[in-house]
């Protein structure tokens, strides 16, 4: 019997494939007394040998599917495995303490990990600690006789099932084989969902219990549009979904025809439709989908994909490449937005009760301004290769903006004094994603060049509902009248000062929100590349005067989300 499970639709499309469980087994180790040390040492040596064979295999597949650079981490793992010092200590401990191999290995590796972790100002040593933790899992799994998932080795079509996927897990998934993913936790705006959209693979998050329901031998249908999963579908269901997938492909072909057209409403008002990117590689998807600009370059992935802080040169190359590839079209680069659900092992962020309300984004940049200055210098140097705009994330007060801008001006002056070319036409704006800033938009508008509304955070902070928590995901309400009023306030405030407002949160590509945003006169819509053409197609059907009327009613006469949706339907049908 097939079984239906619902979750939150996070990335469009359909898939039908076998389950790949990306779930770590229980590797708890118990200490046991043993009789025969030689047997235990042999068990240990065999598991190290087996782990080495596995690592070599993973390395080869990773090099093939993900590239040589991603594969190099496994060389470090192989070296740790073969480390004679560590091996000797484990064997001596088995012999002298007469304990089982698992516990001796765990204890010895723990000493190394703690030693490396205590050198907390040394990023290299921190990384070695992380490597030992990783490799320890493999050796213990072999000793305990359990399987360890290794996503880099996937070489057949699968649907990845996981409790959650970190951005780095997601980055390791090979699109050729991973046809979709489904997770227990997360919401539409958690970063795994955002990454799925930029990889253009269907995804469903926040199912609650898919990791318990879907076994290793099951097949799944994933409907990334409705947010539904069918475990072990019947033949009829497979046929039905194959048809829906084919229809969806046809619709995409229709949208594709708008690729080189301007983004116009029915009455001829033009808007800018831009794409969000996480890495320079994503530019291709934005251009392929008819994006007219990059409205959000999330630079934190540059920091997260690296083992240590990226150098000025590495950052310069990344920014230059995006600007060059966009050939003069605007690129809005957001300075580092680490924290919240985006961790950076080598930066050692504090453990916090409420990371989303904690030490993150511009708060880190202003506190550790050496990191911020390096990023600004790289951006300024790259500015001559295209049309660069810079924005600061998580601005809560005007003072933060002034401080960030002052640092920017200092670095700019320094570069000019050093005789380095920088563009004299860089707009400096802010993300509006904290309610305090949306409320004071009139004051901010006098000092910034532009706003970009980050609804993913703006909604979570306005509704006090963690964007990662599926139990409160019903409060992610982009059409709540309170949110609509805040957004309108920001747009109106910018226009009153002759400035412009964009939106780079997921709401910008939401097909119910778009008519409202058109009515409010949002200037730039920046979204996952795959939503651009669908939005352009919708815009063509909208009349701006009618949408203004819709906004007026939605803001002044509705009290609930359902009333807003009903109103949008009335005005767009
Ligand atoms: C947002 O908060 O809406 C946004 C675009 O930023 P991020 O999703 O990266 O927090
Ligand atoms: Mg944000």
What can you tell me about this protein's structure?
The protein is α/β, with parallel strands linked by helices and 573 residues long. The strands form 2 sheets. It has an 8-stranded mixed beta sheet with strand order 1-8-7-3-4-5-6-2. An 8-stranded parallel beta barrel has the order 10-11-12-13-14-15-16-17, surrounded by 4 helices. Helix 11 links the parallel strand 10 and strand 11 (294-298). Helix 1 (37-66) runs antiparallel to helix 3 (73-81) and helix 13 runs parallel beside helix 15. The longest helix is centred in the first third of the chain and has 30 residues, at 37-66. The radius of gyration is 26 Å and the shape is globular. The model has no long low-confidence stretch (mean pLDDT 92). It binds phosphoenolpyruvate and magnesium ion.
Span between N and C termini? Answer: 39 Å
Q: How much helix, percentage-wise, in residues?
A: 40-55%
Low-confidence stretches: none
Q: Give the biggest beta sheet.
A: 8 strands, mixed
Give the helix/strand class.
alpha/beta
Protein topology:
Elements lengths: L2 E4 L1 E4 L2 E8 L15 H30 L1 H4 L1 H9 L2 H14 L3 H18 L4 H22 L13 E5 L4 H6 L5 E6 L7 H9 L3 E3 L4 H4 L5 E5 L4 E4 L3 H22 L6 E2 L5 E8 L5 H6 L5 E5 L1 H5 L7 H14 L4 E5 L27 H6 L1 H14 L4 E6 L5 H20 L9 E6 L2 H5 L1 H5 L4 E4 L1 H9 L17 H16 L3 E4 L9 H8 L3 E4 L4 H8 L4 H14 L3 H12 L1
Parallel strand pairs: 3-4, 4-5, 5-6, 10-11, 10-17, 11-12, 12-13, 13-14, 14-15, 15-16, 16-17
Antiparallel strand pairs: 1-8, 2-6, 3-7, 7-8, 9-10
Helix pairs in contact: 1-3, 1-6, 3-6, 4-5, 5-6, 13-15, 15-16, 21-23, 23-24
The chain binds phosphoenolpyruvate (PEP) and magnesium ion.
The site of phosphoenolpyruvate has 11 residues, from strand 11 and helix 19.
């Amino acid at each position: 019997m097939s079984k239906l499970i619902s979750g939150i639709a996070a990335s469009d499309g359909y898939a039908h494939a076998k389950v790949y469980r990306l779930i770590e087994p229980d590797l708890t180790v118990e200490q046991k007394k043993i009789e025969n040390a030689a047997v235990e040492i042999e068990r240990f040596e065999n598991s190290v040998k087996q782990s080495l064979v596995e690592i070599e295999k993973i390395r080869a597949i990773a090099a093939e599917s993900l590239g040589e650079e991603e594969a190099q981490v496994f060389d470090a793992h192989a070296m740790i495995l073969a480390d004679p010092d560590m091996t000797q200590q484990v064997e001596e401990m088995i012999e002298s303490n007469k304990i089982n191999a698992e516990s001796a290995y765990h204890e010895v590796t723990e000493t190394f990990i703690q030693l490396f972790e205590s050198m907390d100002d040394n990023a290299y040593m921190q990384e070695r600690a992380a490597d030992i933790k990783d490799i320890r899992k493999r050796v213990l799994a072999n000793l305990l006789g359990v399987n360890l998932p290794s996503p880099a080795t996937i070489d057949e079509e699968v649907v990845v099932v996981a409790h959650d996927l970190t951005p780095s897990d997601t980055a390791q998934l090979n699109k050729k084989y991973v046809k979709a993913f489904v997770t227990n936790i997360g919401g539409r705006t958690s970063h795994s969902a955002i990454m799925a959209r930029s990889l253009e693979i269907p995804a469903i998050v926040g199912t609650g219990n898919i990791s318990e329901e879907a076994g290793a031998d099951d097949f799944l249908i994933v409907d990334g549009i409705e947010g539904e999963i069918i475990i072990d579908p019947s033949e009829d269901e497979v046929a039905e979904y194959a048809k829906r997938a084919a229809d969806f492909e046809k619709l995409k072909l229709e949208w594709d025809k708008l690729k080189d057209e301007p983004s116009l409403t029915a009455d001829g008002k033009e808007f800018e439709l831009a794409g969000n990117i996480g890495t320079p590689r994503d530019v291709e998807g934005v251009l392929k989908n008819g994006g007219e600009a990059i409205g959000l370059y999330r630079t934190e992935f540059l920091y997260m994909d690296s083992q240590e802080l990226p150098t000025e040169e590495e950052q310069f190359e990344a920014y230059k490449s995006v600007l060059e590839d966009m050939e003069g079209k605007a690129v809005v680069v957001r300075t580092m937005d680490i924290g919240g659900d985006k961790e950076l092992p080598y930066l050692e962020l504090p453990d916090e009760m409420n990371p989303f309300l904690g030490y993150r984004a511009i708060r880190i940049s202003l506190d550790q301004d050496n990191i911020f200055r390096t990023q600004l210098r790289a951006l300024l140097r790259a500015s001559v290769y295209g049309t660069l705009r810079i924005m600061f994330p998580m601005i809560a007060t005007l003072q933060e903006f002034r401080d960030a801008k002052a640092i920017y001006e200092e670095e700019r002056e320094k570069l000019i004094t050093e005789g380095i070319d920088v563009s004299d036409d860089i707009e400096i704006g802010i993300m509006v994603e904290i309610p305090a800033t949306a409320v004071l938009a009139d004051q901010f508008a006098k000092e910034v060049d532009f706003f970009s509304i980050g609804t993913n955070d703006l909604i979570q902070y306005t509704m006090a509902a963690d964007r990662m928590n599926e139990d409160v995901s019903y409060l992610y309400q982009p059409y709540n009248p309170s949110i609509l009023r805040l957004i309108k306030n920001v747009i109106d405030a910018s226009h009153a000062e002759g400035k412009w407002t964009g939106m780079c949160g997921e709401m910008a590509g939401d097909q119910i929100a778009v008519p409202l945003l058109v009515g409010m006169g949002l200037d730039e819509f920046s979204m996952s590349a795959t939503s651009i053409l669908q939005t352009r197609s919708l815009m063509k059907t909208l009349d701006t005067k009618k949408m203004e009327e819709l906004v007026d009613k939605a803001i002044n006469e509705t009290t609930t989300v359902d009333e807003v949706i009903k109103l949008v339907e009335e005005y767009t049908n």
